[in-house]
Amino acid sequence: MSSKPQEANALEEIVDAVMASYDGSHVIDSLETAALPNRRAVIDALKSLHSVIYLGFYSTRPLDRGNLRYSLSEQLYPAYSILVEQIRRAISYEQACCRVEPDRDSLHWSADVVLRLFRKLPELRRLLNLDIAAAFDGDPAAKGVEEIIFSYPAIHAITTHRIAHELYCDHVPMIPRIMSEEAHSRTGIDIHPGAQIGERFFIDHGTAVVVGETAEIGNNVKMYQGVTLGALSVRGEDVAELRHHKRHPTIEDDVTIYSGATILGGETVIGAGSVIGGNVWLVESVPAGSRISYNAPLARIAKVKAAR
To answer: Are residues 171 and 267 in the same domain?
Structure first.
């Protein structure tokens, strides 16, 4: 049995070895982590915003018009303070890394961004009300709005996305991705905060859905589990070249995409009113009203024109 001094010496040697590995040769060697946003704080603010949007479903006390203002303020004021500080950290770090202009006043800019987000909360509530209505209309198993808000993973994911997307559009670094990854880890639904999503969006079941950064989704679109709206694979120098180009498909209004379908490419457009069957692989556009299915025995995509 080893003695305590021997264990202590061994641990000291390990500390020295790990310390020596912080020699600046790795991208993970940064020691300025105090300047980075705090993930837990961002998620706390996100939870407060979820509460503001669905206050009657999140509150732990009885609510009425008499205490509504107080209850909203109880969530919004802490969320404001947290987000201003975390966005300030994110932009300051980006300035230190020379990825944004160094003359930007990070504190005032952060406060302005958060106020712009908060002013959009009534509109976000309107959009999310439509998303929940689409879930109720599109799923016969739903017994009521309460069940949808409490238990449907898609509602958590799309609520988070609509918040994160506003920050993404304001060019906030890091924070939107922290939010979207919280929803991803909790629901299995991976929606990049850059994706543009219209009204009445519903994902049934939801697990393993992927929606890429430059995807565009129209109104009244319904998707099932395992759907990917992705980009064609690139390597090396091509990655940098395509970073700011459209890489993910466009889904027009009133489209249904069944489980396991994969749709790739920035030039791929799924026409309005189309139905994409399960396990279909698409890298080219289809016209409005198409019915696309996968013919497994023949290992090909069969395109069947919509009935007129």
So the answer is: no
